[in-house]
Design a protein that fits this description.
nine-stranded mixed β-sheet, 363 residues, 2 domains, alpha+beta
């Protein structure tokens, strides 16, 4: 019998499996043929410490040192700029404070991104904290840690049944069954479905679709040093990526767990919002795709044993914060399961545990 059976091969499952391999034997199952196939492979790959609800920001801060130094570090400078049209000026101060940015002049904004339309730029804010994450290497290194610790990673292995047994769980797949003392539910958009398979009530994870287009660098410009750009209230964003630009309408449309694809109309609206702020129009996207950002009702991660059965452990609800919170979230999970005092404050741990979402459940 293994100690930890991790269901899900995105960044949540890989980071959890790597940390838990310090405590016991690990087997990780993923239904797809490649790790990080769904949301993790479609991430905007940004580390922004001030992004998310307070518990998420606490995990961001707890992850910073790992991102900066582990295995040579995974971060590179990017910066973030928020733009307000003249008619959006009244709401800009709130946006500036929420994102921890400093207001800059129109000339400074144009110096950073020369294609901005001066006549459409009311105000702008800038912050240096946003950085790019090398997500491919981050996931590969977590997978390497699992294997180095003697763990197994099995792709193309969907979970079809879960049954409670006296010593833990029996998990059935098309390739055979596994017995484990604890299940780690890191199934992303499918997390509630895994809970139901295990005979537990869902916790309220909602997948939200977000579409993305990759466009050629405007006018052939060198976009390498441009910051990530947000429209007001995250109405759209653009980010340099390997000599091109990623542009997203930043929509959050509720959907069901599936292999997501971009909505053409929503994507067109996002590209139009971006075009309204720049001098060079979009001709034809190079590619487009979508991912599912899966949130709990309060938009904080769900980390820890289920209050109705502590042998079933949640590592879900990463939303759009999975990559940047992975080191801190997986460390917390390992501390909780290993019986070690968490590094995070008690009120943050309580705000992340699944107990908070189950009224009347035992603490």
């Amino acid at each position: 019998m293994i100690d930890f059976l991790v269901i899900g091969g995105g960044i949540a499952g890989l980071s959890a499996g790597a940390r838990l391999s310090e405590l016991g034997s690990v087997v990780l199952l993923d239904m797809e043929d490649a790790l990080g196939y769904h949301t993790s492979g479609r991430s905007a790959a940004t580390f922004e410490p001030n992004y998310g609800a307070p518990p998420v920001q606490a995990l961001n801060r707890a992850s910073a040192d790992y991102h900066q130094h582990a295995h040579g570090g995974y971060l590179s400078p990017r910066g973030l700029m928020s733009l307000a049209r003249p008619e959006e000026s009244a709401a800009f101060d709130t946006e500036l404070a929420a994102m921890g940015l400093t207001e800059i002049s129109t000339d400074e904004a144009l110096a950073r991104v020369p294609i901005l339309r001066r006549d459409r730029l009311g105000r702008a804010g800038y912050g240096e904290d946003a950085q790019d994450i090398d997500t491919d290497r981050l996931m590969a290194d977590f997978a390497r840690v699992i294997r180095k610790g003697g763990g197994q990673i099995q792709t193309g292995t969907a979970v079809t049944a879960i049954r409670r047994i006296p010593a833990g769980w029996s998990v059935t797949t098309p390739h055979g069954a596994h017995e484990a003392r604890q299940i780690i539910n890191a199934a992303g958009a499918w997390a509630d479905q895994i809970a139901v398979l295990a005979g537990l009530p869902p916790i309220g994870i909602t997948p939200l679709r977000r579409s993305m287009a990759r466009i050629a660098a405007p006018g052939g410009a060198d976009v390498t040093g441009w910051p990530m750009i947000f429209g007001m209230n995250e109405g759209w964003y653009a980010k340099p990526d390997a000599g091109a630009l990623l542009v997203s309408p930043a929509e959050e449309d509720p959907t069901t767990p599936h292999d997501a694809y971009a909505d053409d109309m929503v994507l067109a609206e996002g590209l139009a919002a971006y075009e309204d702020m720049v001098t060079i129009p979009v001709t034809r996207p190079i590619a487009n795709w979508a991912g599912l950002r899966s949130f709990a009702p309060d938009r904080a991660l769900v980390l820890g044993p289920d209050p109705t059965d502590p042998g079933f452990v949640w590592c879900a609800g990463q939303g759009g914060y999975g990559m940047q919170t992975a080191p801190g979230a997986s460390r917390l999970l390992a501390d909780l399961l290993g019986g070690h005092p968490p590094e995070l404050p008690p009120e943050i741990v309580a705000a992340l545990r699944p107990d908070r979402l189950r009224r009347g459940a035992p603490a």
